[in-house]
Amino acid sequence: MTRLLPEQTRATPSPLQRFNTLSAAEARHALLSCLRSLRWADRITAHRPYPDLDALLAAADEAAYDLTPSDLAEALAAETLPTLPEDTYGAAHMALSAARAAYEARFGHAFVIYLGETPPDEALDRTLEGIRSRLTNDPEDERLVAAEELRRLAKGRLMNALRGAGNCATSHKQPAPGK
Questions:
Q1: Between helices 69-77 and 38-46, what is the axis angle to 10°?
Q2: Residue 110 near residue 72, CB atoms below 8 Å
Q3: Residue 112 CB: number of other CB atoms within 10 A?
Q4: To 10 degrees, the CA torsion angle through 48, 51, 56, 57?
Q5: Fewer Cβ close by (within 10 Å): the C or N end of the chain?
Q6: What is the pLDDT of residue 34?
């Protein structure tokens, strides 16, 4: 009978266990790839370890609900629209660019939308529909909608990262703050 060495008997840590044992700086950096709010990332980092994924996601939600207007502005400044598939026709790119420009001119920040499990071939239509419908919002109502979409994006990115999908960042245009 072959005897296993102690290091061979240890189970591979789960993504959550690895997150819980990261240094504070590493955890903060990982979280900033999900949502570019220093306050959000610091708050989640400070409350580790999390006993399970549900507890971590609940903490992420709570921290996102507590974003101040300046925290929200910080997070929105790092967002861009989802990338369109390469085979998307030119007129779609023009329509999306025009809608995005109108939105940004009205509200002063990037349009954000959580596409979740939206099939790639429906992402453009859903994004355009979202921009057009939200252009009618008054600025305060849109700030609340954008905050909710950011919360949903952060939660989705965090779940993807902990499922082993790697980096949460899918549409950020700049490196994490403080780096």
A1: 110
A2: no
A3: 21
A4: -170
A5: N
A6: 95
